[in-house]
Amino acid sequence: MSINAGIDVIVSDVVEVNSLIKRFHFKRADGQQLPAFSGGAHVVIEMEDGEQRRRTPYSLMSSPFDTTDYQVSIRRDDEGRGGSLYMHREVTTGMAMKISYPANLFPLDLRARRHLLIAGGIGITPFLAQTDQLNRLSADLELHYGVRSPELGAYLPELNASLGHRLHTYYSDEKQFIDYDELLTRQPVGTHLYVCGPSPMIDATLNSARSLGWPEAHIHFEHFAKSPPGEPFVIELANSGLSVEVGREQSMLEAIEAAGVDAPYLCRGGACGQCETKVLEYDGELLHEDHWLEDDEKARGQKIMPCVSRFRGKRLVLER
Ligand code: FES
Question: So what's the architecture of 233-318 in CATH?
Fold first, then answer.
């Protein structure tokens, strides 16, 4: 049995949210309740895309208090490696699929006196589940949501209804931007900060928080990297005795899995450390894309995160 057991589900609904985003509902195939989760959790969706099996993580946006279905919202990425395009083009109501058990790498810290949530674009999805959870706890929260325009702002009516004056929107087409320093300066002691969105937004928020002296334990962010496309290369897997070709649009982890080798993962976005693999030998350059390894670990070249990182060179031998 695979070390990455999953849940058989049926796509129970597909809803077009706007011109770029679709929402997918999943129910358990055996009719039972799905496992409990908390706000900020994600699942990995398996996609049988022709000869390629893709596995892509998406945040759960539905209420953690309702496990009759799971909901995720997926923004179509025409420049991506194909996961979102597959979901948008191929997935229809009634289809059987497999998803992972939920895991939470972006949990709320319920000891916080106040929760300051900052979302950009499709980064709003984990906050839909988190605001539901916080509202039920009558917790103090504020959500700041930056998006290109009201038309592309997903779930604005729902957020307005549930948060009222605690929702603050910023439309970049109208030159409205979050002033991170001003926002973070006026928070009471004991506030926890959560940010999810595009990399520049996460970086700007974290830079502001750190320069203002926010405690690291009060700063939470979700930043799943993507395995970029690149020149194909071959990995030798020492324990498995296999040579595996990694295609242009494939991650190392996908290539290892396609060769029938079971490899652990949780986020598939370079953030959790689960897929960490020992590099035994290499002649070339390790192209680290993760947020897990420290800079000195990357420089030593003894470990790699195959879910997002690549290689350029003549020879790469991994322990797997
Ligand atoms: S699976 Fe999480 S870092 Fe690779």
Answer: Roll (3.10)
